[in-house]
Amino acid sequence: MRFLIDAQLPRRFSNWLADAGHDALHTLELPLKNKTSDAGIIARAKQDGRIVVSKDDDFVQTFLLRGEPHLLLISTGNISNAELEKLIRTNLTAIEAALSENRFVEINRDTLVIHE
């Protein structure tokens, strides 16, 4: 899978996904870096066939209005990077399966939620 990691998530998030064999890009790697607008992130994700990974509710609103982007929402609230890494690594197989069949998946501290 191809991912685009939003600014409020750590850059190493893309390393966690890359370690599992995915193509992951962080906004820091884009020309405007973390100043890339949401519209710019969506356009790049659409152009490259990437799934946006974000904590930002604005992407949820855009998805509900326009059906894009393909989205993995991280809704854990404040969480340490170590806890976030453990959560992602522990649930990655389920996340991959959910994203292969659905365009909007959410993970919180306890549950993987598939939005239809």
Specify Rg, calculated over alpha carbons. 13 Å
Structure summary, number of beta strands: 6
One letter per element, helices H and strands E, the order comes to EHEHEHEHEE
Terminal CA distance reads 20 Å
Tell me the structural class.
alpha/beta
Description:
With 116 residues, this protein is of the alpha/beta class. The chain contains 4 helices and 6 strands. It has helices spanning 12-19, 38-48, 57-66, 81-101, and strands at residues 2-5, 23-26, 51-54, 71-74, 104-107, 112-115. The model has no long low-confidence stretch (mean pLDDT 97).
List keywords for this structure.
alpha/beta; 116 residues
Write the layout of secondary structure elements.
Elements (H helix, E strand, L loop, with lengths): L1 E4 L6 H8 L3 E4 L11 H11 L2 E4 L2 H10 L4 E4 L6 H21 L2 E4 L4 E4 L1
Parallel strand pairs: 1-2, 1-3, 3-4, 4-5
Antiparallel strand pairs: 5-6
